[in-house]
Amino acid sequence: MQAVMAVRSKSSKAWLHEHVNDPYVHQAQKDGYRARAAYKLLEINEKDKLIKPGTVVADLGSAPGSWSQVAAKLAGKKGRVFALDILPMEPVEGVSFIQGDFREDAVLAELEALLDGRSLDLVICDMAPNMSGHAVSDQARSYHLCELALDFAANHLKPGGHLLVKVFQGAGYQEYVQAMREVFAQVQVRKPKASRDRSSETYLLGRNKLGE
To answer: Does 15 carry a binding-site annotation?
Structure first.
């Protein structure tokens, strides 16, 4: 047990050291973003122009809210941002937030009620499950969330809409890419600079949802 604690303590210290010296963490504090993840979305948006004034966005797995902050700022007063997370999130101006588990039908129904028949231009999803440390089950739970996000996007995006979703490379990755190709005209990979090099996370961008 002590050996396990020592390893955990060592990895926690390494993370803390990395976090304290992370330029994106400092930049986020300076720019008023709640997390360094804001710069992942900003960089991807700079390249792909997903969020413009008037864009209607759903942010799945939104807490602590940095992607919602970016989306609300870029979409402006003419746009709308709908956010959902199992964790609480401090209010973000211009964002309608629901706290609940995305895997539950009742929570999904609440989000659909909030949309009130609107079709979305964009779904963004930075969700990840609480990691147990068991790689196989963590990967499976992660892709279950991704599949739900894809299903939500397929049902609520307007034709031509886009999905940006975080995935972890490994088991299930190729199958998920294939599933996205059935919904979108193009599927592209994005690995923003703000993603830590050692992380297996990457982002898949489904462009131009196919029409009915």
So the answer is: no
Whether 10 is catalytic: no
**This prediction's pTM:** 0.87
92: CATH = 3.40.50.150
Domain contains 18: no
pLDDT tens digit string along 82-126? 999 999 999 999 999 999 998 899 999 999 999 998 899 999 999
126 assigned to a ligand binding site = yes
> CA 126 to CA 124: how far, in whole Å?
7
Is 59 annotated for ligand binding?
no
Catalytic residue, chosen from 13, 49, 166, 209, is: 166
Domain count, the chain: 1
Does 30 reside within a domain? no
| Structural domain range at position 164 | 37-209
39-73 pLDDT, tens digit each: 999 999 999 999 999 999 999 999 999 999 999 99
Residues in the chain: 212
